[in-house]
Structure formats: C-alpha cells, structure tokens
Specification:
- A hairpin with a 4-residue loop joins strand 1 and strand 2.
- The radius of gyration is 18 Å and the shape is globular.
- It is 30% helix and 24% strand.
- The protein is of the alpha/beta class.
- It has a five-stranded mixed sheet with strand order 3-2-1-4-5, sandwiched between helices. The protein has a five-stranded mixed sheet with strand order 8-7-6-9-10, with helices on both faces.
Amino acid sequence: MRLLAFDCATIRCSAAVWDEGTIRAHVASETPHGATEVLVPMLDRVLAEAAIGLQDVDRLGVTVGPGHFTGLRAGLAVARGLVLATGLPAVAITTLEAVAAATDPTARRNRAVVVAIDSKRAEPYLQIFDEALSPLSAPVAGEIDDFVASHRLPSGILVAGDAGPRLAAALRRAGHDLELARSDPQPDAAVVAALAATRAPVDGPLRPFYLHPPAVKLPAAAPS
C-alpha cells in the first residue's frame, strides 16, 4: 500500500509518502502564518521526491484535529479536493493519536501515555492512552489542573506533546511518577501515514474534529 499523508493542524505543516512501511519522502516546515500557502507545494515536493504521481497513491492520510482552526480548514480543504478529484479513500487521524504514536514503545512500557497539545488558548488538548495506544480517556480541551484532578492515572506516566512540560509540572505537584517523552511533540505526516495504513477510510466526507469552537464567527445578519 502507498499513502500520501499530511498534517497542518498545529504550528507545523508536514507531508510524507509512505510505501509498504517505508517513508520514501518527507518534508516539514513551521507555519507561523498559516498552512494555506505551503501545503500544496509540500505535496508536490514529496510526490516528486518519491518519483510517483497521484495516480500511484492508494489512499490519503490526514489529521482532522483537534488543532488550530486555520490549519485544519486548509488541510481538510486540500484533502477534500484530492478525494473529489481522484476518488482516493481518505483516513482520518487525530492529532492526539499522532503525537501518542510517535513515542518510543520502550518508553511506553508499563506506562500510560498522556498527550497535551497547545491549543493557543488556556486549555490545551488532552488525552490518555495505554502503552498499546488504545484510548483510556476521551479527548478534551481543559484546564490542566482540573484534568489531573478528575482522571485516575496509573503509577507510571509518559507525557508527550508540546504542552507536555505544563502537564508534567501539574502531575508532579499531584505526586505522580512521570517521564517526558523525547519524541516529536508535534503531529507529523510520517506517523499519520503509518497509522492510516492500519485504519479504515472514512465513510463520507472528511470532517474537522473540534474541541474548541472556532474563534472566527460569521457576522450577524443585518436587520431587514
């Protein structure tokens, strides 16, 4: 199976071509001003580096959130366009899953993985996984201290994600034994591709997964 995968849900945009377990091309770039202008050139670049075209791709893998509204909107617009143009099946991966899956299996042994992703707001995105990466909690956007107080956590914890240091501080205050993951704290297309190879494609259109309502709202209709 050959996949084209991409992510632009947080502060970085990445794309990758995955071919039967091997990453044949990969590119990533910080996107402080949004992913709209960089994503399509990235996809062109990884396809060229892998020496394939879209006609050689079997499926797409894309993050659907939670994340930053602008990046999610850009990524899903591109994904929907590709699905419409090519008929390729698409697999939806959450950013929390991608960050958890990037952690070292040895570091996860006998530990729960708690992912904390910066949301650009006071409440990061949070979720708990077991060492096999099965979810132990629902994904939430919440205050870290409230999250720590309201969840029963095992004795060993591996903390991942770019908001991990904030979470680790709260966990230590609560007396938990933990380790900070040395893995990539951002979602990455290479991990998205590997996950997408094991999942069923979505049935229907790709939809964003929001935990915060979009900060941008449509203006109220003028009175008639």
